[in-house]
Amino acid sequence: MVYCNGTHKLENEISITIKDDRLATEFALLADTVQVRGPNGKIIGTFTPSQAPPMLISEEELKRRTEDRTAKTFTAAEVEAKLRELRCTQ
After folding, report:
1. Greatest CA separation found in the chain?
2. Which helix (H) or strand (E) holds 35?
3. pLDDT by residue (tens digit) across 51-74?
4. Contact, 35 vs 43, CB < 8 A?
5. Which residues, including other chains, have CB under 8 Å from residue 46's CB and lie 6 or more apart?
6. CA-CA distance, 13 to 2, in Å (whole number)?
7. Residue 74 and residue 57: Cα distance in Å, rounded?
8. What is residue 74's DSSP assignment?
9. Is the pLDDT of residue 8 over 60?
């Protein structure tokens, strides 16, 4: 194991190219480290994204929504209640 700037790197690090567009998109949108499993369910390894997933809305839209004083807002309890309700209806 080789350490560079306080992080570890494999000496013979390899690169794998994902040819499946759907799968590549799923990996690109990940924000946290996930386990990667093979078809048999066994863990192959882990995947850690190199950066945060791309923003799905523009900075301008985010600012507009933040500054909109007429927009409906919800408390954490209201969001949790709605999620419980949705979970029970599916």
Report:
1. 56
2. strand 34-37
3. 766 677 888 998 998 899 998 889
4. yes
5. 33, 34, 35, 36
6. 10
7. 20
8. -
9. no
Q: What global pTM score does this model have?
A: 0.41
| Helix runs in the chain, H state only | 21-28, 59-67, 76-89
**4 band by pLDDT with thresholds 50, 70 and 90:** very low
**36 and 47 in contact (C-beta within 8 Å)?**
yes
* Cα–Cα distance, 47 to 33 (Å, whole number): 5
Secondary structure (3-state) at 82: helix
Q: Which residues contact 35 (CB under 8 A, 6 or more apart)?
A: 43, 45, 46
Please state the separation of Cα 67 from the chain's center in Å.
26
Residue position matching structure tokens 């839209």: 61
C-alpha dihedral over 11, 12, 15, 16, to 10 degrees?
-120
Within 13 A of 82's CA, how many CA atoms are on the CB side? 6
> Phi and psi at residue 72, in whole multiples of 5°?
-70, 135
